[in-house]
TrEMBL record:
<protein>
    <submittedName>
        <fullName>Glycosyltransferase</fullName>
    </submittedName>
</protein>
<dbReference type="GO" id="GO:0016757">
    <property type="term" value="F:glycosyltransferase activity"/>
</dbReference>
<dbReference type="Pfam" id="PF13692">
    <property type="entry name" value="Glyco_trans_1_4"/>
</dbReference>
<dbReference type="InterPro" id="IPR050194">
    <property type="entry name" value="Glycosyltransferase_grp1"/>
</dbReference>
């Protein structure tokens, strides 16, 4: 069985979990090809990401003329399937016309149709028998249309929150209906897919976690003394809740003179956060450290006593898994898949989303926790994430799903 992965933009520094999953599958002797619509190489720094970029076939780098000729050639050889795929593309475009930018409109779906025809052709040329898309957005649209055009069967992984913010705009129900199976990275995510699927399709929706590589977290650093010193990691965007965290820090810092927070990440809210930090007089308390690679993230976790995640919307953040693997307790909002991993009072603290006072109280609770108890929570966090999110074990589960599709196809062909 030869499988292709399809991602809209790949690789990206913020999506190393896809690379880890691909490499874990390859360690199981599964042959994988990488498709992406576009590259993000101008923003790549890590050598592993750059190497992955070189392994990836970026469809739009063909240029419009060559892509159009490739697509047209496939469509002319498969007129019946082309008409069916065209109707499907237009139907999905109508559903998404008023939805999320980047997914809606008939014209956009006609572009997806052309991309899908080229992908179907390349799958035939490469002997690819199954296509797996990451994210239930544009990439899965292309996979679905490629299948409708006579390409291989497909499956997809949803992460959230984007897919679940506008499920109708992303035609999730239609994508589920045509897919061999779908994957969610948490039980919460599976529940959101079930909301869009016909009841008869629920058995084809599976939970396969994003994973971490345990070897990268072989010897956790001991918790540093003093503080407390917290670290927050994520894109400086609205859904991550960082302005609320600044308000919580201002409240907690009044009682905790040693309190420090390092924020790793960049994004559109950086200036607003700088203004909020200055307005609260927190320049000596909160440090905006900018983007960091995997090595920088591990160093920041080692220097902190806990990760804090004030998000308003999430899937199940890999950074939480990495913090727990590093032996760090977590303060997080009780949203999406987070309560499945972090349990109140055992691996950390869960607080209501949007409540700066609750965040501040959790910070004070952490500061009042004896060092040995805090270290014990870090050990519990590490044990739990290694038991649930080992990438090799999760890749085995995904490989079994691929194998099931191959067996089903053999039975149908027989």
């Amino acid at each position: 069985m030869k499988i292709a992965y399809l991602v809209n933009t790949y690789p990206r520094a913020s999506q190393t979990f896809i690379r880890r999953e691909i490499q874990a599958l390859e360690r199981q002797s599964i042959t994988l090809h990488r498709f992406a619509m576009r590259s993000d190489r101008d923003n790549l720094v890590d050598a592993a990401d750059l190497a992955e970029d070189a392994r990836t076939e970026h469809v739009l780098e063909l240029g419009a003329a060559r892509l159009g000729m490739s697509a047209l050639g496939w469509m002319l050889r498969h007129p019946g399937r082309t008409w069916a795929a065209l109707r499907l593309a237009l139907d999905c475009g109508t559903q998404g016309a008023g939805g999320v930018a980047g997914t809606g409109g008939r014209l956009r779906h006609l572009i997806y149709l052309a991309e899908a025809a080229h992908v179907a052709r390349r799958c035939r040329d490469l002997g690819i028998t199954h296509l797996h898309a990451h994210f239930g957005t544009n990439s899965t649209t292309v996979a679905m249309l490629a299948h409708a055009l006579g390409g291989p069967r497909y499956s997809f992984t949803t992460h959230g929150p984007e897919e679940f913010d506008a499920p109708h705009a992303h035609s999730l129900g239609e994508k589920l209906r045509h897919a061999a199976f779908a994957v969610a990275i948490s039980s919460f995510g599976r529940s959101q897919l079930c909301r869009q699927a016909a009841f008869a399709d629920w058995p084809r929706i599976h939970v396969v976690h994003c994973g971490i590589e345990p070897a990268r977290f072989a010897t956790p650093a001991p918790l540093p003394p003093g503080g407390p010193h917290l670290v927050a990691i994520g894109r400086l965007a609205e859904q991550k809740g960082f302005p609320l965290l600044i308000a919580a820090m201002a409240e907690a810092a009044r009682d905790l003179p040693g309190l420090r927070l390092t924020i790793l990440g960049d994004g559109p809210l950086r200036r607003e956060l700088e203004t909020a930090i200055a307005a609260q007089g927190l320049q000596a308390v909160v440090h905006l450290a900018g983007w960091a690679d995997e090595k920088g993230v591990r160093a920041a976790l080692a220097a902190a006593q806990a990760l804090i995640l004030p998000s308003f919307a999430e899937g199940l953040p890999v950074v939480v898994m990495e913090a727990m693997a590093a032996g760090r307790p977590v303060i997080a909002t009780a949203i999406a898949g987070l309560p499945e991993l972090v349990r109140e009072g055992r691996e950390g603290w869960l607080v209501p989303a949007g409540d700066a006072g609750a965040l501040a109280r959790a910070i004070r609770d952490l500061a009042a926790t004896p060092p040995e108890r805090l270290a014990g929570m870090g050990v519990a966090a590490r044990d739990r994430v290694l038991a649930r999110h080992d990438i090799n074990r999760e890749a085995t589960r995904l490989a079994a799903l691929f194998a099931g599709v191959a067996q089903d196809g053999t039975m149908q062909n027989g």
